[in-house]
Amino acid sequence: MKKILFLGLFFTVIGGIVFLSILAQANVQKINPFNSNSLKQPFPFNHKIHNESGLECENCHLFVFTRTDPGIPRLEICLECHEGNTAPPFDILEKYSSNGGQIPWIRLYKLPRHVYFSHKRHAAIGKIACKTCHGDIGEKELPLDKPIMATLNMDTCMDCHEQRKVSNDCSACHR
Hints:
mainly alpha; 9 helices; 0% strand
């Protein structure tokens, strides 16, 4: 009888541990700010060719120096140079333009609600170059199909704050 009770207790504990680890993993995935699955953007944007032609990040991400969110490039910005170009892949831009819509870019980064990050604070006030966090995106010939997770994590942020002698107080970034 004791052996049966012991085995019952043993399997209950093991089952509980397995259940809790599955639940914990599900919660981690739920609040993961990064879309780790590959995705396909609606337009094959070439950062490299735009970078080589002298455009800066803020030419397309209009609010990088003025707002929390840098903004996703609007169709009107693309059409300033590419309007009327119907050769592939620019025919895609014409399609969106004729339908009166925007390019349905897929957002790569979505921070959890309890995390506050301001591009204005980092780019304009802190004078941190985009490539510090976003890596060599200016050299990419195709849009990213997933976030650059190697540079965007709490440890990297805290190290940078320490190097620049700015607050690492929890309330600076967490709400």
